[in-house]
Amino acid sequence: MPVIKILTLMDDASSENKALRSEHGLSFWVEAGDRRFLFDCGSGPATLYNANRLGVSLKDADFTVCSHSHYDHAAGFRDMAEAGFGGKTLYTGAGFWERKYAWNGLKYTDLSSGFGQEFLREHAVTQKICRGLLPLADGCWLVGDFPRVHPFETIPRRFVKGTPPETTADDFSDEICLAMRTERGLVVLVGCSHPGILNMMRHVHEVLKQPIYALFGGTHLVEADEERIGTTVNTLCGMGLSILGLSHCSGNAAEKYLAAGRSVQTCHMTAGDCIAIR
């Protein structure tokens, strides 16, 4: 079984490596067997800057995965493609091109990726869409179309999609995650987990019929109370979770809860942080 290496290129929090930049966003560089790829791209050129400082050759990427089309995960792909990096295949969920906004009851703030299908054509990038379960390589899958079985995992009403003023609540049906098989179980990468981290992981667990050993990325527990955080962690442990690497939108409350000696190893994955799992 090959070693899986996950290196954070971008996160909201600053790391011990003060040469690196932080911004609201997420990006991982993944090495799994003979595959090299990006999972999310951050929101701009700072991800490229960090990769350069870390000695990561993004021109060697086989492909790029965007977990969903919010700017803080996808907008950095524009910089990648313009530099000739990130590979010539972009994996997304269905509905990736729908415009996304934050709405405060009066104004709309565009949260979209900032590029479209014409941009991909201009840079000879092929889009491949994950519907349900999409194998990427032996022991590596994209997963989407998550059933909503946990009613407390709600999506904030401010997130909408469409064309103002004709918008609807964003159900984040475009969101996907990545699962990789190891000797100990699945290693899963998530972007923001807008459909609900438990909804997502339960579906991954049931579809691939393997325990979830490690989970990395944004769990969107930033607005959750302690009861929901506790329920989430305990349920994930019931699926086999041993390692939880929080990033981006996971929130201080979740990190504080996990720091109190829970039954799972945890860390915050800031830029420059790397995990290696066999």
UniProtKB/TrEMBL annotation:
Gene3D superfamilies: Ribonuclease Z/Hydroxyacylglutathione hydrolase-like. Residues 25-88 form the Metallo-beta-lactamase domain. Pfam families: Lactamase_B. One of its GO terms (molecular function) is transferase activity. PANTHER family: METALLO-BETA-LACTAMASE SUPERFAMILY PROTEIN, METALLO-BETA-LACTAMASE SUPERFAMILY PROTEIN (AFU_ORTHOLOGUE AFUA_3G07630). This is Metallo-beta-lactamase domain-containing protein. It comes from Cloacibacillus porcorum.
